[in-house]
């Protein structure tokens, strides 16, 4: 099911887009906005998995809005101007639909979104053998993983809320294959970090958002992992 939010500064365009969406199976318009700032203030509280953003808007473009929500929602751009296509795809969006929007073209964009949402959902829920039995954990809730100091065959997993769970008898190679590759990186032989938990990084060190005493947890980057990390960060 596609649950979408629409952002367009023209009310007529919003009405037309909502009308098209109502004619497409498995698509629900959760809410529509004509002001980017109001959209940004509410988007994190809405139950949606896709944003349909107009690009050309006064005050803030759809491209700027997308940069602020990129990763948290799938995005389809709509615009009457073809010159934005390259910038749009640089943001790794689902699709770029030219105005005036045709129903058939919108269906095609929604099908792409469904496929991407389905793929990411499959990777999100992972069943682990842990110290509390078989446990299903949302990958997006994982902040940090390290080799257990008690038994090196086990891995300590730290969730975003600070909860720790022990993964039983699992090596890093198999662990990384289970995790979404775009969201996690191995830092050294004993540690994996969620990219969302990274505060600052240099060529030798990562400062995380995870508290450690009065400071934040720091991770040393192993020589064997530097090039892959820099590539992941686009450096």
TrEMBL record:
Entry-annotated residues carrying 4-aspartylphosphate: 54
One GO term of the biological process aspect: regulation of DNA-templated transcription
GO CC term, one of those recorded: cytosol
One GO MF term attached to the UniProt entry: phosphorelay response regulator activity
Protein name in UniProt: Histidine kinase
Domain (Response regulatory): residue spans on this chain: 3-114
Gene3D superfamilies: 3.40.50.2300, LytTr DNA-binding domain (2.40.50.1020)
Keywords carried by this UniProt record: DNA-binding, Kinase, Phosphoprotein, Transferase
InterPro entries: CheY-like_superfamily, LytTR_DNA-bd_dom, Sig_transdc_resp-reg_receiver, WalR-like
Transmembrane segments: none
Keyword Zinc appears in the UniProt entry: no
Keyword Phosphoprotein: yes
Superkingdom of origin organism: Bacteria
């Amino acid at each position: 099911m596609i649950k979408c939010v629409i952002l367009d500064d023209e009310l007529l365009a919003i009405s037309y887009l909502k009308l098209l969406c109502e004619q497409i199976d498995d698509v629900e318009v959760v809410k529509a906005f004509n002001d980017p700032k109001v959209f940004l203030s509410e988007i994190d509280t809405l139950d949606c998995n896709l944003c349909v953003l107009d690009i050309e808007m006064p005050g803030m473009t759809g491209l700027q809005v997308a940069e602020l929500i990129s990763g948290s929602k799938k995005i389809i751009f709509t615009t009457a101007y073809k010159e934005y296509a390259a910038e749009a795809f640089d943001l790794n969006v689902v699709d770029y639909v030219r105005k005036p929007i045709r129903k058939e073209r919108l269906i095609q964009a929604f099908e792409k979104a469904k496929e991407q949402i389905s793929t990411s959902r499959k990777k999100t829920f992972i069943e682990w053998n842990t110290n509390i039995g078989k446990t299903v954990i949302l990958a997006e809730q994982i902040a940090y993983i390290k080799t257990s100091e008690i038994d090196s065959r086990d891995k300590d997993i730290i969730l975003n809320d600070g909860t720790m769970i022990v993964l039983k008898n699992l090596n890093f190679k198999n662990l990384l294959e289970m995790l979404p590759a775009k969201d996690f990186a191995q830092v050294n032989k004993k540690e994996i970090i969620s990219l969302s938990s990274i505060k600052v990084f240099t060529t030798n060190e990562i400062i995380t958002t995870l508290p450690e005493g009065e400071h934040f947890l720091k991770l040393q980057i192993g020589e064997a992992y530097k090039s892959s990390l820099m590539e992941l960060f686009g450096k």
